[in-house]
Design a protein that fits this description.
- By secondary structure, this protein is α+β, with helices and mostly antiparallel strands.
- It folds into 2 domains: about 150 residues, 60s Ribosomal Protein L30, Chain: A (2-Layer Sandwich); about 180 residues, Phosphoribosyl-aminoimidazole Synthetase, Chain A, domain 2 (Alpha-Beta Complex).
- It contains 11 helices and 13 strands.
- The strands form 2 sheets. The chain has a 7-stranded mixed sheet. Strands 1-2-3-6-4-5 form a 6-stranded mixed sheet, covered by helices on one side.
- A hairpin with a 2-residue loop joins strand 2 and strand 3.
- The protein is globular and about 55 Å long.
- It starts with about 20 loop residues before the first helix and ends with a strand.
- The model has no long low-confidence stretch (mean pLDDT about 95).
- This is Selenide, water dikinase.
């Protein structure tokens, strides 16, 4: 494998932290025309994870696209992470990926063997998902980027959105926070090999198993936690559902040393974008440390699912998840709407 050039050295930002800030994006999208189609069941009006389009009375298509610059130097691992992240949106909507197409931007200074390894990494996760890759698009670009356009199919009754949370629901998170912080520390060469291994394992873990584990359980709302952070995606769920959300900071799972690095100021640029956009919609208790607050605003790359569900179902769900991960846990609750969309306790 050709490692003479570090992939992360070719980027200014990495992973989901490279996404355009939510404030800028909102200001642009609100001035664009909105398309109307009776078969479009889920569009971008409530900032859901993927579109859902009805093709027949018993079938809908779920479609999403996601790509980003590398957050690791190993090409194969980068391909795995990018593919895992793109596939996640379909799982968050309650579906299963079926077909995918590659999106690859590749610098002319890199050997073609690196291109092969990036694509091979992506193929490995698509195969694990039980889907197929059937083509794609490449372009020459000085900054490497990779991802997928993913299509899945489902029955209309199986579709989940981020906008149907119910008062009294508890909130379950399936992966730990701190991915953006640790990736920033990795670029500064501060992480140990074990820390790199741990965060990489989290980023390459398909949300397939988190989705399959809630079969036959009541899930009212679902989203995946990516670049907009836990607070940001929690805000979307609260806003879309016309509710408020409370997160319990002492139960939120965190990667080891995430708070330590955050306290040192090792924070991705995307955290500041999230902080600026979300400053008026959330409230923190006075006992919440600055580093904990930063972790809750940390942009995640290939993060976990956030599910809103009745407590009885949540307990059964966590029991099922024990064989897949030690990280899944109840981290909050849904309340009637009040002055703040998100409250951190």
């Amino acid at each position: 494998m050709n490692n003479t050039i570090k992939l992360t050295a070719l980027t200014k930002t990495s992973g989901c932290a490279a996404k355009i800030g939510p404030g800028v994006l909102d200001s642009v999208l609100k001035n664009l025309p909105k398309f109307e189609d009776s078969n479009l069941l889920v569009g971008f009006d409530k900032k859901d994870d993927a579109l859902v389009y009805k093709v027949s009375e018993d079938k809908v298509v779920i479609q999403t696209v996601d790509f980003f610059p590398p957050m690791v130097d190993d090409p194969y691992t980068f391909g795995q992470i990018a593919a895992t992240n793109a596939l996640s949106d379909v799982y968050a909507m309650g579906g299963s990926p079926t077909i995918a197409m590659n999106l690859l931007c590749f610098p002319s200074c890199l050997d073609s063997s690196i291109m092969h390894d990036i694509l091979a990494g992506g193929y490995s996760k698509v195969q694990e998902a039980g889907a197929i890759i059937a083509g794609g698009h490449t372009i020459a670009d000085p900054t490497p980027k990779y991802g997928l356009c993913v299509t899945g199919f489902a029955h209309p009754s199986e579709i989940l959105t981020n906008s149907k949370a119910k008062t009294g629901d508890v909130l379950v998170l399936t992966k730990p926070l701190g991915i953006g912080i640790l990736n920033t520390a990795a670029k500064a060469e501060l992480l140990t090999s074990d820390e790199i291994k741990e965060v990489t394992k989290i980023m390459t873990e398909l949300n397939r198993y988190a989705k399959e584990s809630f079969a036959n359980l009541k899930v009212n709302a679902c989203t995946d936690i990516t670049g907009f952070s836990l607070i940001g995606h929690g805000y979307e769920m609260a806003s879309g559902s016309d509710k408020s959300i409370e997160f319990f900071s002492d139960t939120v799972p965190l990667l080891p040393k995430a708070l330590e690095y955050a306290k040192m100021g090792i924070i991705p640029e995307g955290m500041y974008n999230n902080q600026d956009y979300l400053k008026h919609i959330h409230k923190c208790s006075t006992n919440i440390s600055q580093e904990m607050h930063d972790a809750l605003l940390d942009p995640q790359t290939s993060g976990g699912l956030l599910l809103s569900m009745p407590e009885k179902d949540a307990k059964e769900y966590l029991s099922r998840m024990e064989c897949y991960t030690p990280w899944a846990r109840i981290i909050g609750q849904v309340t009637e709407k009040n002055d703040y969309s998100v409250i951190i306790k």
